[in-house]
Inverse folding.
């Protein structure tokens, strides 16, 4: 219904705002705000060259202050928020796929120098997945834009939500 779609859109905006607040807290090195936004048992997954695990090193205090995550694109699909950017100085493109639940980030997938395509499996309305999944139709709902800026060929992955 229209009300369910409005509620879903509102939820997506709130989830996007949580992620944007996290990036602001990371930029300003506001540890208290970061701790309020992230669950203490954050589930973290990484794909890319090991030296490029900038987010984990930043969250644990081990990354150079010169690397900053400035999202150039942020989109939300239900509880998943995708943020993408690139660091021209180090030729690194990055994508974060955040999972937000009740205003708290519970999971992040970090992709470095990787092309990502997000596809939707099934229909989701007001947070509930419909039972009908068309096996031959998984539409792409988002594709990374900055992975080519690294100046070299990068692996491509599909994230199904």
């Amino acid at each position: 219904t229209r009300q369910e779609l409005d509620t879903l859109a509102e939820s997506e905006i709130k989830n996007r705002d949580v992620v944007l607040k996290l990036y602001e807290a990371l930029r300003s090195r506001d540890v208290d705000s970061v701790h309020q936004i992230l669950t203490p048992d954050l589930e973290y997954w990484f794909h890319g060259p090991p030296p490029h695990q900038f987010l984990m090193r930043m969250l644990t205090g081990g990354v150079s202050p010169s690397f900053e995550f400035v999202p150039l694109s942020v989109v939300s699909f239900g509880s998943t928020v995708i943020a993408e950017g690139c660091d021209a100085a180090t030729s690194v493109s990055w994508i974060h796929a955040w999972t937000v639940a009740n205003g708290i980030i519970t999971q992040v997938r970090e992709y470095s120098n990787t092309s990502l395509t997000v596809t939707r499996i099934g229909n989701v309305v007001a947070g509930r997945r419909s039972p009908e999944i068309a096996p031959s139709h998984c539409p792409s709902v988002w594709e990374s834009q900055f992975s080519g800026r690294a100046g070299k060929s990068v692996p491509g992955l599909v994230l199904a939500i």
Observations:
- The beta strands are 38-47, 73-77, 80-87, 92-101, 104-112, 115-119, 124-125, 128-129, 140-143, 156-160.
- The chain has a mean pLDDT of 82.
